[in-house]
Amino acid sequence: MKYKWEKKYLYWGITAFLVIVSSILFFSLLNRLDVVAQVIGFVLNLLMPFIIGLIIAYLLGPLVDWFEDVCFRRLFVKMFHKEKRRAARVCALIVTFLLAIALVAGLCVLVFPQLFESIKGIVGNLSSYFSRLEKWVLSFFEKNPDIAKIIEAQFDNITKSISNWATNDLLPQVTNLAGGLTNGVINVVNVVTNLIVGLVVSIYVLSAKEHFFAQTKKVTYAIFSIRTTNTLLRITRRADRVFGKFVKGKLIEALIIGLLCFVGMSIFGMPFATLISVIIGVTNIVPFFGPIVGAVFSCILILLVDPLSALYFAIFILILQQFDGNVIGPKILGDSTGLSSFWVIFSIMIFGGLFGFTGMIIGVPTFALIYSLVAEMVSERLKRNDMPSDTADYEKIDHITLQDEIIYRKPDGEEPEEPPKEEPPAEQEQK
C-alpha cells in the first residue's frame, strides 16, 4: 500500500517546531534581560545616526513639500521641462535646511546664554531668595507667634538642607568636572557626529523619498499577501496622519506658547523670563500634565524672588493656557487624536511609565492609532452582524435577543418588554 504524503502535516510539524523554539528563546531571554538590554542598547547606538536622520526627515518633510509644490515647481516650469521636479526638490531642500539651521543656531545664541545666566543666578542667590520668602510668609503671622516659630523652624531646616547639598554634592561634582572632562568631550563629539550623519541621512531620504516608499511597498507585497499588505499600508497611512499632525502640531504649538510667554513676562517685568518661557514651551509638548507641571514649577521659581509677581504670573499663565486650549491648539492640531480626556490621561500614564518622557509625548498619538483601529474593527464586525455601530445607540438599548431583536430601555426604571417567544413547531406524529 502506497503511503499518501500530505503537505498539511509538514506545515503542522514546522509550526510546532517554530513554536517550541520560540518558547525556549523567549524564556531564555527572560532569564537574561540584562544581556538583552545591553544588546538593544548597542544596536540602538549603532543605528542612532540613521534614527536621528529619519526623525529629521519626518519633521522637515511637510516643509520641503510646501516649498517644492508652492514656491519652486511653478517657478521652474518654463526654465526646466523634464528636470523641473528635481530642480524644485533641490531648491526646497536647500531652503528648508538653511531655515532649520538658522532657527536652531538662533535659539542657541539667544536662549542658551540667558538660560545659563538665569540658572546661575538662581543657584547663587538661593539662600537670599528663601530668606526673602520666609520674611514674606512670617509677615502674615505676626499676631500668631507660635505658628510663626513653627514656620521659621521649617525654613531653617530647608536652608540647612540646601546648604549641605551645595557643600557636599554640588562642589565635589564641580571639582571632579575636570577629571571627567575627557569623557564629556568624547560624548559631545559623539553627539555632534550623530547629528552630522543624521543630517546627511535626512537629505538622502528627503531627496528620494518616493523611491524609498516604492521600494518598501514592493518588498512588502513580495513578502506578504495582497490583503495583508493593503492592511499594512492602510495602517501606515493612518499612523502617518495621526503622528504627523500631532507631533508636528505640538512642536509648533510649544514654540508659539513659549514665545507668547516670553513676550508677556518681558512686558510685565517678571524675573527669569527666558528660563520660564523655555520651561513652559517644553512642558507644553506633553498633553494634559505638561502645562500643569510647567506652570507650577515656574510659579515656585518666581515665588522665591517675588511672591506678588508669582501671583501675577499664575493669572497670566492661566489666561495663556486657556487661549492655547481654545484657540491655538484647535487651530493647529484640530481633533487629531479623537480621544476623550480619560483616554489621554490613561495613555500618558501607561506610555510615560514604560518609556519615560518620550513615551509621554508619543503615548497619545500611539494610543489614538490603536483606539481608531480597534473602533474600526468593532464597527465592521457589528455592521457584518446587522447591528448598530454608533455608541449613542447603545445608550438606548437594553439588550439584543438571540433572534437579533433590539430591546430598548424603558423610562423610570421599568422593565423592558420581552418579545413573545415563538413556540417550536410540533413534531409530526408518526403513523
Written overview of the protein:
The model is unreliable at 177-182 (pLDDT under 50). The protein is built from 13 helices and 2 strands; from the N terminus they run αααααααααααααββ. Among the domains are: 126-176; 241-386, no CATH class. The longest helix is centred in the C-terminal third of the chain and has 44 residues, at 341-384. The chain has 431 residues and is mostly helical. Strands 1-2 form a two-stranded antiparallel ribbon.
Strand order of the largest sheet: 1-2
Count up the helices. Answer: 13
Calculate Rg over CA atoms: 31 Å
Task: Give a quick account of the main beta sheet: strands, pairing sense, barrel closure.
Answer: 2 strands, antiparallel
Count of beta strands: 2
Average pLDDT metric: 76
* C-alpha geometry: globular
Helix content: over 70%
Structural class: mainly alpha
Summarize it.
This protein is mostly helical. Among the domains are: 51 residues; 146 residues, no CATH class.
Features of this protein?
13 helices, mainly alpha, single chain, 431 residues
Secondary-structure topology with pairs:
Blueprint: H1 7-31, H2 33-75, H3 84-124, H4 126-138, H5 145-175, H6 181-207, H7 209-223, H8 226-268, H9 273-283, H10 289-305, H11 307-332, H12 341-384, H13 391-394, E1 397-400, E2 406-408
Antiparallel strand pairs: 1-2
